Each structure stands twice: as C-alpha cells, then as structure tokens.
Protein 1
Amino acid sequence: MAKYFDVHPDNPQPRTINAVADSIRNGALVAYPTDSCYALGSRIGSRDGISRIRAIRDLDDRHHFTLMCANFAQLGQLVHIDNDVFRAVKASTPGAYTFILPGTKEVPRQLLHPKKKTVGVRIPDHVVTQALLAELGEPLLSSTLLLPDEAEPLTQGWEIKERLDHQVDAVLDSGECGTEPTTVVDFSSGEPEIVRRGAGDTARFE
C-alpha cells in the first residue's frame, strides 16, 4: 500500500517533505503535485522507476520523460542549450512548460529518445514541488499522471491513493492542482516546435 502524505500547499511541512525525499532516495515511485497537474516521480537513475512509470502509463520507448529541475544550474547539466534557446527557456521559467532538448552525458541512456537522444526538462512554479526538489538535491525523473485511455490526468491525492495504491509507493497531496498538462516545446532543431499545447501560453513560440 502507498504511504499518504498531506502537506500545506503554501507552507509544506519540512518533516513531511523530508520523508518523501528520503523515500525517493531509497527507490520509491511517488505521485506528487506540480503547477500543471499531478506527476509520477522517481530518481533519475532508477531503472525500476522507469519501468514502473511505463507500465502505469502504458508508454513505449519513444516517450519523452521529463527531468524536473529546481533551477537553471540543474537544467544546464542535463541538456545542451545554446544562447538563443537559453533566452527563450529562461523567459518562460519557472512555469508550466516542458522543453525537449539534446541530453548530455549526465542523462542515463534509457531516458533519452532512442533516435533523437533528446529528453524533456522543466522548472516548475509550485511551492511543494520546489520544496521537494530542494530537499532531494537533484532533478526528479517525472511523467504526467495520465492513465491509459483517460482524457484527463488525476487531480485529487486521495483518488490517486485509491486507484494506484499498489502501483506507487507514496502519494504527496497538497490539494487539487489542475488537469492541464504542460505546454511542450521541442527545441532540439534550434527552432521552437510546439508539440503539445497545454497550461503554458504558446504565443512567444509562434
């Protein structure tokens, strides 16, 4: 059964955040809130986490995982980014955007797109997510908590706990956080290509 952690959305209790971060360090797969919707998260190097996320979401090997970063220092270690792209990404973060860029050697091979060698990165604008990333001290491997054959992501922590009780190890609940996934922008060719229109305004990339 998944452990259930309830935190304040604006002032998350440090003890609770510490407990969730410790569980991630020990290999746990967690469901947690972001500034767009709930996500599944595990350590970057966890093969078990990757396979469990793929199983829950029924994903193939062409799916772009997202590396959730606390800041640009972390993001810059994971992807190759030139000055023009840097300015565009910088102007849009933190926020509900995922950017697809060529991965560096810091990214495990199994997380990269098999042909393009790209990966998704983002910096969230959510107090609880940022608290978790700060305590964890490293980026978090993530994927939107959208179940197969369902049109919208799950939005309530208690419902996630109920439905995925034996598939995740922990649920971090800070209240409802919306149903619209991030806007996804592919910069792997140097020019912005909008892959998915979501919570982030696309005007600056068109």
Protein 2
Amino acid sequence: MSFVLIHGAGFGANCWDEVVPYLSAEALAVDLPGRGTRADVALGTVTLADCADAVREDVEARDLRDVVLVGHSFAGVTVPLVLDRIPGRIRHVVLVSAVVPPDGSRVLDQIDPGVRELVEQSITAGVYHQARVGAAAMLCNDMDEATAASALNRLADDSAALLSEPVNLRGYRRDIPRTYVHLTRDQCYVEEFQQRSIALLRAEVIDLDTGHMAMISAPGKLAAVLNAVHG
C-alpha cells in the first residue's frame, strides 16, 4: 500500500517534502510536466491529459497498487483523469482543498474574484508566474516567517492554459471512496468554493485548521489525516 501525492498549480513535488517523513507507508510525490524532474517540458504545451499521464507513468513505473491518491488544490482536476487511466490501482482518493469546478467549466471561472484577478495579473505569454508578495498573502497566512520563506522559495511557473481548459470530471463517477480535507483558514481556495467542491464530490469531509499549504504549515496534522485514511 502506498501514497501518491499530486501537487497543485505553481508548485512541484517538493511541496510535499515536509509531509513524507510523517507518512505511514511508501510515498511517491509526482512532478507534473514543466517543473522538477519534468522541467524539460515546455509549459506552453502542457494539458490536463499530460498531467494525468505523468501520474500514470510514475505509478506504473514503480508498479504501485492499493494507492491512496492525494491531490492538492488544482490537482482536483487532474485526479479524475488519473482515475480513468488507472482505476484498478487506486483504493482511496483524498482531496486537500482541491479545486473541483462543474464538469466542462474552466478552473479560472470557478475561483474567488479577488484571487482570480491576482492569477490573471500573473499570466504572461501563456505562463502563470506567481509573485512572492501575492503568493504570500494567499498561501502563507498561517505560517511564521521562516516557514513562509521556505514555501515561497518553492514557487514554480505553470501553464496558464491549464486554468482555461474545460475540465473532465468523469473519473469521479467511479466507485472509489473519497475524502475531502477542508482547510478552514484557506485564503486561496476560500470557504465558498471549497463548499461547492464538497457538494459536487459528495465526499467524506475532514476539517483541518490551516491555510492553503497545509503540507508545509502543518505537515504532521495533514499526515495524521492521510495515515488515518490509509489505515
């Protein structure tokens, strides 16, 4: 049994570094195309299907089975595509403040207007680049100065096209148990939108009193939730 960890927008697999030591089983943190171990992929070419294929490739390369698949934030629209590709390998899905907009809509249209404005201002030539000041306000409200600096040092450019690509949620129709980790102090994916995602998923809900980057600000608490799901 193992964990597979999928990061959100603007980060790579290293956002999970603090959580992995607390986990009770083998953990694979995947770099989606355009960052980390896949930094050779041009961001302007990346699609949601490419992201799902990257997860599938890494899982199959290690022949992982009985997986607890964990998706953070923007990974909420990658996870259903993964479920359609390797359903037999996934035992449980955990979504951490995950973006789950209505099927066929765009992520960009389903986030808080204030956050959306910051995101749109951060797009140049098809690349989404988060400035440290804006990211600090959205992502680091529950962190001390040193922890915030560590988080912000891991910011990565992302594909702006992913934000405007229509999402395909078909994979969530599969009979695979799912849990939504509701982050009560999240200033990025705010309460109203988390509740919309929860309603769409009809998932078990676990509250965690953290900001958006719980894996960095409270890794032990998040790991405890994941370990309890894993069993």
Protein 3
Amino acid sequence: MEQGRAGEAFGTAAPATAPAVVRVPEQARGEHTHSEPHAPRATVRRHSVRGQILEALRAALVDGRLVPGQVYSAPALGARFGVSATPVREAMQQLAIEGAVEVVPNRGFRVSERGPRELAELAEVRALIEVPVMLRLARTVPPGAWCALRPLADATVAAAAVGDRASYAESDRAFHGAVLALCGNEQLVMVADDLHRRSQWPLESNPATRRADLLADAAEHTALLDALIAQDLPVVRSLVREHFTGAEG
C-alpha cells in the first residue's frame, strides 16, 4: 500500500516520513486462490494482518493522522487498507482496551482526547516506577551490558534527526524497555511499556511533537547511556529525573 493511501485512511495526507502501511496479501484478505492454505494457517495469517493494522493505527495515533475527537469507522478504514473491516475492528478494540480510542455504537471509534493533566499524571507514575529501577541498575549492572544498548540509543537519535515521530516512539520504547529488562522483572517491563505507550499519544491541543523536542529527548538517551557506562551515579540520577519532566521521555 502506498503511503498516500495510508494517509487517506485517516482523512489527511501522510507526511513524507510516515511509516508505510504494509501490503496485505490477497489470501489474507479472504480472496480465493488455488494455493489457499488450510484453516489453521489462514487463522495465523489473519492474526498477522490484524497485528500489522494495529501497528499502523498506533503509528497514526502518534504522528497525528488519527485526530483526537474524530470518529473513524472500521469499514471505511478497512477499505483504505485494502482489507475487510474485521481486522481493523479487532485492532481498534485493542486500542480501546489501551485507552487510545472509545467505542461509539453504530458509528465506529472516537480517538480519545487528552489534556496536559493526564500527560503529567502518566509521567509521574512512570517516574515512580522507572527512576528507582534505573538508579538501582546503575549501581549493579556492569558497563559492558550498557554498551550493548548503544544501537538502541542511536536508533532514537536517527529517528529524531528526520522527524519521524512514529519511528521515534517505537525506538524510544525499545530503549527504555531494554534498560528496564535488565532488572529481570517481566511484569514491571510490561506495565512500564503500557504507560510509556500511553504517554506518546498526542494532546488535543498539540497533536504533533516538534522535531527539536525529539532531538532533545534522544540526546538525553545518549547522555544517560554514557553516564551509566561511566558509572557516574550523580549524573545518572540527575538525567533520569530530568528525563521524566518532558512529554516524550
């Protein structure tokens, strides 16, 4: 699917840096072919399509193509994606569970409208979870383990440099998730990732994060990693706490 068609799915043209929505195989659309797989394989493929649609919708949330307050119908989005309404509806239902959209009976799904207070509350909860863990890890994890995370920090810088908000959001969560994973608590990592994802949805009054803000946030990742490798605990403590005062940390 062309990027332009993906943009049309959300009622606006997709920016040049927006991630392309993957083409959906004809078999996955339910169209009959001579090589159509048996039912179990078709089920796996359908779930794969749903996952692809979910990731595309999440990217559209982050970069503002899904507009807060606007209602979108599954059939209309499905037509734009070239799939049936079913995987779109399933993906939207997952987003409703996550709080990104609200179900509107007989109409579709409304993108949730959020204010600065909700964003501040998310940042506070994330800080309560992540700051103590990061400070503990700074005292116990050897420099070599931190060096292994350098590519993840570099990925946030690369995404920020081109202003790709969707790619930045993904790489940002990957970096934070890899840091927290060093604590060995899988439940904590999952909870933190959910909070992090929610904090990346745009505010109604500020749907697009500025490229300069992305660059500043990415620079904090690099500085934090440098301090962790150097085992400079005072700098780590300062950077970690400062990182959660921003909207994109």
